[in-house]
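Hi R.,

Here's the chain you asked about this morning:
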Amino acid sequence: MERTPTHPDVADVDLQQVLEALVDPVRRSIVTQLDAAGADIACGAFDIAVSKSTATHHFKVLREAGLIRQHYVGTSRMNTLRRTEMNAAFPGLLDALTTPRPPGR
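And the predicted structure, written out as tokens:
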């Protein structure tokens, strides 16, 4: 039985779907935490204040929008930001989301 969830080809994802995934602050936090880490993060290791079932939903939305890739390492479901693929499809989008802005802007 295959445990790795399916992932869309980023070329098949439209900008509307990506923006809808990023409108939620929890999902934006997941993306920015992945970007800051620069490495894979297990689902349970994110600093998000939601229940496990709600977190599962947020990860699914991000995966279906092509923003993250998930795979298992042992019993942990790991998450990877698909930065290179997203940058190719939507140049500058992740940079706009993850680049800190000076105070007052």
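Residues 51 and 57 are 10 Å apart (CA to CA).

Let me know if you need anything else.
M.
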